[in-house]
């Protein structure tokens, strides 16, 4: 990243000054490079001189003048190529400005990078898994689960942009009580479809979608289950019902561009003996004990866990926690991921400490497992919360919201705040064709650039084969403050990707996209892009516009959104 290059240059200057005896040889961390709040203070700033002065005081007991240290470092920083100017400020801040000539050349570099623009190498050589959504496979996806899907999918996008090898996984909870109730409900609806009397289980799934599922089952398999006894029919229907709901979930998630590399079956952990194997292994290590006829994981031995947790009930039935242990053993030991991110709703926060205890019990570093908790989403219309579907009187599904506002609006709006914050999703704003709607504003900016480039071609200002200039003299014409501000804003994308990975929260991308769109608008307002009387200047600004289109398209696609050419 540009920031890292500047940090390295400053660090080398400090080392050179210390080697020459111009600075005291004291230990200090690498210089931190920050972006000043005010652009007139430069592109980057560091307080390393004050850090070094404090280190001198601590190690030698002598006072050192931070501003004098800053001047010594500044004198050693080369003012060519990347860095154009170095200035001192306040008690010892070093402000650095990127060279104007270097900025101009980045226009061509951005265009050449295309869909890889902004990529960084932070995660090269690391295999990460992101597990998200993982809702019970018992029906359509409630809209509340859409935030999980968008968050996990966008995190996966930025991880890949940062060089990580990423596997996207959906954990299918197809073992246990909820799956059994789903199958029993489906069987009852199937019987009713053929005019038989059948009761829905008391805790079964009463939504109208189960009637549709039963009709699909009947259409594909006829009445062959009617002749079976109840247990045999349930056994036969189970995998078919699972396939129906997974197909439905895949279709719904596909509406917002979410696809998984693997749909991992919880039941498979029982079928291949994985659950019993890991429980036996932990028992041998003394991590699981028998008490009151049940088997308990000794979670209370680990930090933030006040009590032990049941893994096998006194009835002999395993708990969900048992398969959770086996599942994470499979992720880390069997499949060897370097790190795993689980995206969970905030109401699962009580399970975080026990999962970190499991990691320690398995001999793994708990920091390799990150459980990302996200807060709730409220759907709003006319200032009122919307809870129920108009169509079915049941919960509002992801499909219904996408049909109303579109996939791009769903994704953008669900990314506007950090995971820890709740979101009020305004259905009216999401479809408004105005600058108040951030989705519309950002996408319209991209479409506007496409229109500018198309018109330039139609008017003969731009050659039909496109922009082909490679002469440095063309981009060297880009000296207007609005032009340079746009280049600087585009170059921030690397750091935005890095920040999203660091925080595991890609909400900063929405704010960056809006800033980038605003910066382009300011450039277009202040600089005449297409001027037949000044072809070289027009070509330079059209190159800049093409770079801006590249950057906008890149950030939109990182968020899983489309980059429309017309609106």
SSE arrangement:
Elements: H1 2-19, E1 44-46, H2 48-60, H3 66-76, E2 83-89, E3 93-98, H4 100-113, E4 127-131, H5 144-161, E5 165-172, H6 177-193, H7 209-221, H8 230-254, E6 262-265, H9 266-271, H10 274-284, E7 288-291, E8 294-297, E9 309-312, H11 320-334, E10 339-345, H12 352-361, E11 369-374, E12 377-381, E13 384-386, H13 398-405, H14 407-413, E14 423-426, H15 427-430, H16 438-458, H17 472-475, H18 481-491, H19 493-503, H20 508-526, H21 535-558
Helix pairs in contact: 1-3, 2-3, 4-18, 4-21, 5-19, 6-7, 6-8, 10-11, 13-14, 16-20, 16-21, 18-20, 18-21, 20-21
Task: Describe what is shown at a glance.
The protein is 49% helix and 12% strand. It is built from 21 helices and 14 strands.
Strand order of the largest sheet: 6-5-4-10-11
CATH architecture of the largest domain: 3-Layer(aba) Sandwich
Number of strands: 14
Summed over residues and divided by their number, the pLDDT gives a mean of 94
Structural domain count? 4
Looking at CATH, which topology of the largest domain would you report?
A: Rossmann fold
How would you explain this protein's 3D organization?
By secondary structure, the protein is an alpha/beta fold. The protein has four domains: 2-98, Arginyl tRNA synthetase N-terminal domain (Gyrase A, domain 2, 2-Layer Sandwich), CATH 3.30.1360; 104-113 and 434-558, Orthogonal Bundle (Isoleucyl-tRNA Synthetase, Domain 1), CATH 1.10.730; 130-171 and 261-374, HUPs (Rossmann fold, 3-Layer(aba) Sandwich), CATH 3.40.50.620; 177-254, no CATH class. It is 49% helix and 12% strand. The two termini are 34 Å apart.
């Amino acid at each position: 990243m540009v920031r890292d290059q500047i940090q390295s240059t400053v660090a080398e200057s400090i080392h050179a000054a210390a080697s020459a005896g111009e600075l005291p040889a004291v230990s200090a961390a690498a210089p931190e490079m920050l972006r000043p709040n005010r652009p007139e203070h430069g592109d980057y700033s560091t307080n390393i001189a004050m850090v070094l002065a404090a280190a001198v005081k601590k190690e030698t007991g002598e006072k050192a003048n931070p501003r004098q240290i800053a001047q010594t470092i500044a004198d050693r920083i080369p003012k060519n190529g990347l860095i154009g100017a170095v200035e001192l400020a306040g008690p010892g801040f070093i402000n650095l400005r990127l060279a104007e000539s270097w900025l101009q050349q980045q226009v061509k570099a951005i265009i050449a990078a295309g869909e890889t623009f902004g990529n960084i190498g932070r995660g090269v050589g690391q295999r990460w898994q992101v597990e998200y959504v993982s809702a019970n496979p018992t029906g359509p996806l409630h809209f509340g689960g859409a935030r999980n899907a968008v968050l996990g999918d966008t995190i996966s996008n930025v991880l890949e942009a940062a060089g990580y090898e990423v596997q996207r996984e959906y954990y299918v909870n197809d073992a246990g009580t909820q799956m059994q109730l789903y199958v029993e409900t489906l069987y009852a609806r199937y019987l009713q479809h053929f005019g038989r009397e059948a009761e829905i289980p008391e805790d079964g799934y009463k939504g109208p979608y189960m009637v549709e599922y039963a009709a699909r089952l009947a259409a594909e398999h006829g009445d062959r289950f009617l002749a079976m006894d109840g247990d045999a029919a349930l056994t036969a229907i189970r995998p078919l019902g699972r396939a129906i709901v997974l197909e439905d979930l895949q279709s719904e998630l596909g509406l917002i561009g979410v696809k998984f590399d693997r749909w991992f079956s919880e039941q498979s952990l029982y079928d291949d003996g994985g659950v019993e194997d890991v429980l036996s292994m932990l028992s041998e290590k003394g991590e699981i004990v028998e008490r009151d006829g049940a088997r308990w994981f000794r979670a209370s031995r680990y930090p933030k866990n006040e009590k032990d947790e049941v893994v096998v009930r006194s009835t002999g039935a395993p708990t969900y926690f048992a398969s959770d242990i086996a599942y994470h053993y499979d992720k880390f030991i069997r499949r060897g991921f370097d790190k795993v991110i689980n995206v969970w709703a905030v109401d699962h926060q009580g399970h975080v400490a026990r999962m970190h205890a499991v990691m320690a019990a398995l001999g793994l570093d708990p920091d390799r497992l990150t459980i990302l908790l996200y807060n709730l989403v409220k759907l709003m219309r006319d200032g009122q919360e919307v809870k129920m579907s108009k169509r079915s009187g049941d919960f509002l599904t992801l499909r219904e919201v996408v049909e109303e506002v579109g996939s791009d609006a769903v994704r953008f709006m669900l990314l506007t705040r950090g995971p820890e914050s709740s979101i009020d999703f305004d259905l009216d704003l999401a479809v408004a064709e105005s600058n108040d709607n951030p989705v519309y504003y950002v996408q319209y900016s991209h479409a506007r650039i496409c229109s500018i480039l198309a018109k330039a071609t139609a008017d003969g200002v731009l050659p039909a084969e496109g922009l082909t200039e490679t002469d440095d003299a063309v981009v060297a014409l880009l000296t207007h403050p609005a032009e340079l501000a746009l280049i600087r804003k585009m170059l921030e994308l690397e750091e935005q990707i890095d920040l999203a990975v660091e925080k595991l929260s890609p909400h900063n991308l929405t704010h960056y996209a809006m800033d980038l769109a605003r910066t382009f608008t300011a450039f277009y307002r202040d600089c005449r892009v297409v001027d037949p009387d000044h072809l070289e200047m027009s070509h330079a600004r059209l190159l800049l516009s093409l770079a801006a289109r590249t950057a906008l398209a890149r950030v939109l696609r990182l968020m899983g959104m489309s980059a429309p050419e017309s609106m």
